[in-house]
Design brief:
Elements lengths: L27 H5 L42 E2 L8 E2 L14 E3 L7 H10 L13 H12 L7 E6 L19 E6 L16 H10 L1 E3 L5 E3 L6 E6 L9 H13 L8 E6 L10 H17 L3 E5 L24 E6 L15 E5 L3 E4 L14 E5 L1 H21 L6 H10 L2 E4 L6 E4 L2 H4 L28 E3 L2 E2 L6 E5 L14 E6 L2 E6 L7 E4 L6 E5 L6 E4 L9 E6 L2 E6 L3 E5 L6 E5 L6 E4 L3 E6 L2 E6 L3 E5 L7 E5 L6 E5 L2 E6 L2 E6 L3 E5 L7 E5 L6 E4 L3 E6 L2 E6 L3 E5 L7 E6 L4 E5 L3 E6 L4 E5 L3 E6 L2 E3 L2 H7 L13 H22 L1
Parallel strand pairs: 4-8, 4-9, 5-8, 9-10, 10-11, 11-12, 12-16, 17-21, 18-22, 19-23, 22-26, 23-27, 24-28, 27-31, 28-32, 29-33, 32-36, 33-37, 34-38, 37-41, 38-42, 39-43, 42-46, 43-47
Antiparallel strand pairs: 1-2, 3-14, 6-7, 13-14, 15-16, 19-20, 20-21, 24-25, 25-26, 29-30, 30-31, 34-35, 35-36, 39-40, 40-41, 44-45, 45-46, 47-48
Helix pairs in contact: 4-7, 5-6, 7-8
Family: Belongs to the peptidase S8 family.
Organism: Rhodopirellula sallentina SM41
GO molecular function, one term: serine-type endopeptidase activity
Length: 816
Amino acid sequence: MKLRTTSPPSSDTGIELDPTGIETCEPRLALSASMMGAWLAPLADPLSDPFEADPLQGQNDIADAFLASCPADAYAHNADTSAPSLDTTTADFPLTIAPAVLTPVSSGTSLNDLDEAFTQAALNSSGDGSGSSLIDQSARIGESTGIDGSGQTIAIIDSGIAYDHYAFGSGYGTGTRVVGGWDFAENDADPYDDAPAGYHGSHVAGLASGVTTTLDGDTFRGVAPGADLVALRVFDDAGNGNLAWIEDALRWVHDNQDTFESPITTVNLSLGTELNDSNRDAAMAMLEDELQMLYEDDILVFAAAGNSQETLDPNADDVMYPASSEWVSAVGSIDTNGNLSDFSQRENGMLTGEGQQLLSAIPEHVRGYDGYVNDYASLSGTSMASPQVAAASMLVREAMEAAGVEATSESILQRLESTSVVHTDASTGLTYRTLDIEAAIDFSDLVGDPIDNPVDGEPDDTPIDDTPATIDGYVSGNDSDQLHLDLSGLLAGTGQATDGSVYLSDDAGQYKIGLDGTTEPIIIDAGAGGDSIEIVGSSGTDQLTLRPTTGTNAGHSILTFPGGVIELRGFENVSFTSGGGQDRVTMYDSDGDDVLRSNSESAQFTGRGFEFEVEGVDKLYVLATAGGSDAAHMTDSVHDDELVIRPQFSSLRGGDLFQAAFGFERVYAYAEAGGHDTADLGDSSGDDFMSIAQTRSLISGVGYRASATGFEDVTATASRGGVDTVRIYVDSPDGEWHTSESLTQWTGADGTSRIARGFERSEAFEQYETVPVGASAVGANAVAEQSYLPARSLDEIKRDADDHLLGLRQLFENYE
């Protein structure tokens, strides 16, 4: 549908008040505000239900899963409220959909009345320009510095953009504000925000980069009004979307990043869907490579966190996908007082922007054609916050380039975070950040030297004593502090520093921490507030133990290094970068739901009120024993890695890297960096279920679940009791089966293997056909002879498993 014809104005008022066939705008947003989740339902892992009657149920639908539409009739509009509701009688939605909340603008019957309503909205600002909203800040920045996002283009992946709107310059193509785009729903080059379900993309684009003057002379502006726009339409006329269109849009951005006069530097995704264990892998398999590619292109991607905080499924991720991707910055919504909106989903440390009652552009067709393409509506949702934060990053990028600072994905995000204000959400204890763009774009300290080349006067020959003061400890107050601790000057193995000390920096300056050779710890106490510290390790062996600010030994962390010990107190956020030694880090959880993400280069552990990050550490031990439902995501190295999974304990070893996770209810291990990797899955004393496939294997029992993805060799052993079940799935016919009553093994022609020992129940499938295993295979002599592996009793297997686990525990204890 490409309908943009403007109806003739009426002779009396200039407006056609109630045009035939034009719906009210309330129901539409639910269909275009958030990516639908129905098409992900068939991707639920067929192995996830251990007692499903048909083990292959659902697997035959995978090939067509992403072609399934998201039925628009699943939404029924409630006339008594402005928010759409889910009609569960017309469609089965296993995922929670999070539409933005529409608040219609009350307007009269004339253009002057429309402008009056627009003026009363205070232009999304404080009116006098003194407010702290992102739009207020950007207006002041534009007036004082001229920084407005010029020289850049932002891609809006949404329902399209009404590019004929006054706020977008009333044009499309080269030389206009909306310089290009594509409609992936209708596969053409006209990404106009039309159709009954349209206008969400236009509203989002206006908050990012719209600018115009109303008939009454008032100014509407987004956060980066100097930036160009690209419209990428991924919703059809009914408001349906699918992952394939979004994937194509992300690739389009990569392929066309330098096509236009101003390069694409930023992408906004005010859409998303809830993910859980059953569909996470499938969705991420489609989009993660494109999202990572854009991040490495230095194109920042921002996405709405979601609006389902109050009704979020407990099995779903905390924020919608793709906001939950490691390559994407999730954006939450706050109110005018800086508090998280009740509807906004939450992620520890996430960026936020105002997302309530925000006025922005909507297409002419929404309210009826009056001949003036200048309509606006007020919306609420994380969809409205995300484009503002995305546009703010463009201002920071422009300021960095002007100051001669390299602007990369990492450096821009670091600048946004380091200059932001950290708050703690009273309802969850999680932290969130509000942006101070004016501080983020201030690089005046890099312009001019205060002695040799002062900015505002003649050279000053007065010598300045910049020798840091020596301190033996540090105590702060109730402010939110950001400290930097530098051990890089220490000489490995000597306990001495090249200049005699360790350096600590805060906003006031730099200090030396004297090392007197005693064993008493030096105390760095951050006091109250949301505090952060960045630590650069020494070239020797450093040992760091990190604890969150709640629970046992709350907030007391210990850093041991050559020549001293430092006790860190009261820090919610700690980052550690190895200086090159054989370092070891131990991290403890909170009593909430915590998440670990680790790989061969770095690790991040986040939870209620804390965030720990480490880089370049060889030995990592993480304990999740304080409570909550905790999840660990562990990724391999380029070496031949060995994974061990046991209930309440998992480890991944490769080269010099060792990662250990204790007490996690959910563990996800990934072998994707290279090498020939092996996984060893062990049972508990209860009834366990294991499934082994060529790409992914899992184990589940009472209170825990673990999976291993991409491992070439997988061995599953049931030796600790209970009635255990195993299923082996093989796609390739190029392999051999070997079975006995207690052994099922498949060996592929490529040298990979799948082995299961000691299970009471065994099933095997090759290309969806049942393979006889266990007693049935022996009786029918249906598979190869049983001489492939030496016979072993269950007692022998159990002893080996116990010895292995004991050895791993002792290894951990030796490092404590």
